[in-house]
Amino acid sequence: MKAIKTGNSMKRSIRFSVAAAAAAALVIAPAAAASALPIESSGPLVRIDISDTLNCAVNHAGDSAGEFFFDTACGTFAAVGGELYGPSYVPAGPGSQTAWTPVSQNLTGTGAGTDPFQIVTEVTGGVLSITQTDSYVEGDHHYYTTSLVTNNGTDPVEVTLYHAADCYLGNDDSGFGAFDAATGAVSCVAPDSEGNPSAASRIEQFIPTTIGSNYIYSGFSQVWSAVVSMQPFPDTLSNPDTRRDNGMGLSWTVTIPAGESVSLSM
User: Which residue ranges form the domains of the chain, and what is each CATH number?
Assistant: First the structure.
């Protein structure tokens, strides 16, 4: 395992398939606060946790480590008015974001298809408020994330919403990448038994269910740098066949009239 970096220098070891939304060190900074409301199930996603400032953490039944670096190196960010908002702490993450202000969080549901588990988290930042709903049906290999973004200001605003992660797939901090133009899905791909990407490799991916998304696959630090740029992701699949410490993300850029909301999902 590597030493963990803070901000954006040294750092971190994962895998599952997140169709709509899917570490360790010496001298580690404290992890982002987990919610008091994790989804816990028989699997295959045995635990899904969203912090009160929109980190995401997922555990797969087949892995001993979480699916993102140091569990919580995954989150929802937004750029608006020259300011970047995001989770209060992201392991080995960007470090320059203004933390979302927590408002509320609750867990409902039984995990059945007709009554999925749902974590609903509300935060604010600047003129924005976000109500994020993370839903999981027990037995699925994926969960769904929907962000309802509201402009509470008096003028229209352009917002770029990001969902980005530092992958830790299959207890491994390094892997390969892929992009599917038909679905817009961006993936981290685990090495197979011979250390190569193959059809037998496990994947961890974000699949947009709202049109108009942009994507990135690259080294984890390049992904965080792209978030910090406050620009839409550049639609790049960078060196996907080179095994490395990798990350991925989706973004949407929308204009929201005063007092109105936009729903963005994956």
Answer: 39-256 (2.70.98)
